[in-house]
Known about the structure:
The structure holds 2 protein chains of 2 kinds.
Chain A: E1 10-13, H1 19-24, E2 31-35, H2 36-39, H3 45-56, E3 59-62, H4 76-89, E4 94-98, E5 100-103, E6 106-112, H5 118-135, E7 139-143, H6 157-168, E8 171-175, H7 176-186, H8 190-195, E9 202-207, E10 211-212, E11 217-218, H9 227-240, E12 244-247, H10 256-276
Parallel strand pairs in A: 1-2, 1-12, 2-3, 3-4, 4-7, 7-8, 8-9, 9-12
Antiparallel strand pairs in A: 5-6, 10-11
Chain B: H1 3-16, H2 27-48, H3 50-56, H4 58-71, H5 86-93, H6 98-114, E1 135-139, E2 144-150, H7 152-160, E3 170-182, E4 185-191, H8 193-203, H9 208-214, H10 221-238, E5 241-246
Antiparallel strand pairs in B: 1-5, 2-3, 3-4
Helix pairs in contact in B: 2-4, 3-4, 3-6, 3-7, 4-5, 5-6, 6-7, 9-10
Amino acid sequence: MTAIPVFKGFGLGLRPPHFNEFLERGDLVDFVEVISENFMVPGGRPLHVLDRVRERYPVAMHGVSMSIGSADGVKIDYLRRLKALADRVDPLWVSDHLCWTGVDGFNSHDLLPMPYTEEAMDLVCANIARAQDVLERPLMMENASTYLTFADDQMTEWEFISEMCRRTGCYLLLDVNNIYVSGTNHGFDPDTYLAGIPVDCVRQMHLAGHSQGRDLLIDTHDEPVPDPVWALYKKACERFGSLATMIERDDNIPPLADLLAELDVARQKAGDWTRAA
Amino acid sequence: MSLLDTQRGFRDHILAGVDAPLRGASERGLAVYRHAYRAQLIANLRDTYEKTWAWLGDNAFDSAARHHVETHAPESWTLSEYGGDFVQTLRTLHPDDPEIADLAWLDWSLRRAFEGPNADAVKPEALAQVDWDNAVLIFVPTLVMGKVVTNSAAIWGALAEEKTPPAAERLASPASVRIWRSDLTPKYRTIESFEQRALILAMAGSSFADLCSLLVEDGDTDRAAQNVGTALASWLQDGLISAVRGRQA
C-alpha cells in the first residue's frame, strides 16, 4: 500500500451552488474536496460534473458513511462502491470520520461518537485494515466534533487517534474546528490535543465555522471560520507545517468569491510555515 | 458494557428518546444527537420532495416529515435512498387531497431519474436498416411509468417554473405519466392510454410486430400499426430508446 504524499495546497468543497464556476475555470483553488456519497450514484449530472471538474482540479474524496467504528463491521458493498468511485476519480486521497453512523442495519446519517476504549481501538483498527485492503490505498481519518463522552473512556481522543494511526498506517485529516468545538464542549485544552498528535500522520486540515447551541458548541458549517479557530489553525501549521487545507461550508453557503477570500486568509495564516517548509 | 451493546443502546435512544435512556452519557449531549438525526432526515425529505414541500407549505410538510421520520428509520448508507415510502405516508395522511401523493410520486421519480444510470438514446437516422418485424426496443434505464389521479403534472410544472399553480382537480380517470432522463435532464410526460399499453408491452420485451398485433382494436390492424408508429416516433423524439435489437429465436 503506497503512502499518501504531502500535498500543500488550499481547497474548497465542491457544492452544487458553485458547480458552474468550477466547471468554467480551472484556477480557482489548488484542489477540491467532494462528499464521496454524493457521487456514488449510477449516473446523471453529479458524475458528469465530477468528471469535468476532475479534468481541471486534483480531487480529495471525503466520505460520511463508512462508519469505521460500527461494532458490526464496515459494509463490504459500501467499500466496493467507494472503490469504484476512487478508481474513476484517482483522488489525492480517500477520507472519512472516526465515528460510527449505525448498527444492525440502522443508519443515523450522523457522525456518532466513539467511546475511547481498548475494545473500540481493536475494532476500529480491524475495520480500517479491512477498508484499506478493499480500497487498496491508505485511508485518512478525521476527528469528528462530539457532544458527549462516555463514562468508560480509557484514553483521550488524541491518544486514541495517535495509536490508531500507528497500528493501521492510516493518516489523519485534522479538523481544527472540530478540535475547538470538542475541546470547548468537553473541557480539554486544544493545544494539548495538537501536541499529542504525531506530526508525520497528518496530511490535511479542515477549517469551518460553528454555532453556539443551548449548552454546547455545534459543528454547523454555516458560518465563516471564527477567530479562535484561525488562532488554533496557526498553531497547527506551526506544529505540522503547511498542509492541504480546506474550508468546509455546507449550509448558508455564500458566493464562491466569499469563500475564496476566506481561503486567502488561510494562505496568509499558513504563509510563514509554508516558507519555512 | 460491550461496544455493540453501547451502540445498540445509543441507537435505541436516538429513536425512542427518554423512553430508552442511555447510561453513562450526558443528557445535553444526547439531545444534540436526537435533534441532529431528525433535522437531517427532514431536511433530506425537503430536498427530495421540493415541489411537494412548496405545495404543502412549511408547516404541513414538516408535520408529515416528522411523522415519517418517527415511523421510518433509514437503513441505507446513502441518504438519496431515504424517503421512497414518503409517498405512501402522504397518501395516508392526506386521503382527501390526492394531488399531494401524486406530486410526491413525481418528485421522487424525477429525483431517481436525475441520478439514474446513463444511456445514450438512439438517433432516428440509425434505424434505417432495422428489420421491424423482429425489432425489440431497449429503453433507457431511467424510464418508469406511473398513474396520477389529479392534475398534479400541471401543478408540478407550474411550481418548477415558479408560476402560480392551478387549483388541484381530480381527473375523470387516472392518467399515465412516464418519467425518464434525457441527457442530464429528468423529464415527464402525461400519455394516452394507447401509448401506456404499448409502452408496457414494449418494456416487457414484445417485438415491434407483436405490438402492432396485440394492440389491434375492433379488428383494425392498420389503425393499430399507425398508432404504434406514432408512439414510436414520440419515444424516439423524447430519447426513450437506447437500442433496437433483433428478437431472440
